[in-house]
Amino acid sequence: MHIGRYWPKRREVMYGSLLLVFLRVLILAVVVMGLVMCADRVEAHYQKVVVYRNAPLCPAATRWQTADDCVAQITGEVVDAHRGESCTTDSNGVSSCTVTYSVHVRFGQHSQWLTVDASTYRAVEMGDRADLRLWHGEVVRMTTQGHTEDYLTASELASAGWLILAWLLLGATWPTLFGVRLIGLLPGWLVLTVPYLMVAYNLLGLNPMGVVGWSITAVLSAVGMGFMGRWLLELADW
């Protein structure tokens, strides 16, 4: 009699457990497939980056529109400059602003806005000469008024995007494997995204780090691990 009374509840619990296991397996399958795809895309873009990094400068007579696996050198002109500012206000009413600088460069029949730092922005004037380097039509370096700005290629940016996606997929495995209580690890995991990218780029040879880079990596790693460690200690006290 008691067994018949409690069997429906036990069956609901059993079905709920099976559904949870199924969802976890499904999420892990998606994560694994996503990681495989990320690795494949990073490898593909990495090969393109290697070609770019080892590419010689094009002969002087080469047109940048037809340049193949060489870095074209052309002369452009600064035709405009822009200073932008975006501000946000937190819950305490404290505002913080971010200032960005860019210059508009014309070369031939083409023109492009390029992000620059503050010193370059202050140094340039309309009509100034800009020495440009292009890779497959993308501006990868600009030198003007003694200031040099370097820019990432599309493959380098894509590599970073796929690496970030892989990191987020790995983060999704924490609550999937060990329960939603570990969702509190997310802030620390997100902080670790920056040092993860810096180390990954360094290991791939895309962006070798000096003392400053490794120092930033160490500090952010300590902060991220601190967030995660504090949460785990609080979880253990429960």
Through-space gap between termini: 38 Å
Largest sheet: 6 strands, antiparallel
Decide which structural class fits the backbone.
alpha+beta
Radius of gyration: 26 Å
Helix segment tally: 6
**Unreliable parts:** none
How would you describe the shape? elongated
Order of neighbouring strands in the sheet with most strands: 3-2-1-4-5-6
Secondary-structure element order, N to C: HEEEHEEEHHHH
Strand content: 15-25%
Number of DSSP E strands: 6
**DSSP helix fraction:** 40-55%
Determine the mean pLDDT. 82
What does this structure look like?
- This protein has 238 residues and is of the alpha+beta class.
- 53% of the residues lie in helices and 24% in strands.
- It has helices at 2-53, 118-123, 154-178, 186-191, 193-203, 211-237, and strands at 72-89, 95-107, 110-116, 129-135, 138-144, 147-150.
- Strands 3-2-1-4-5-6 form a six-stranded antiparallel sheet.
- The radius of gyration is 26 Å and the shape is elongated.
Question: Any key phrases for this structure?
Answer:
238 residues; alpha+beta; 6 strands
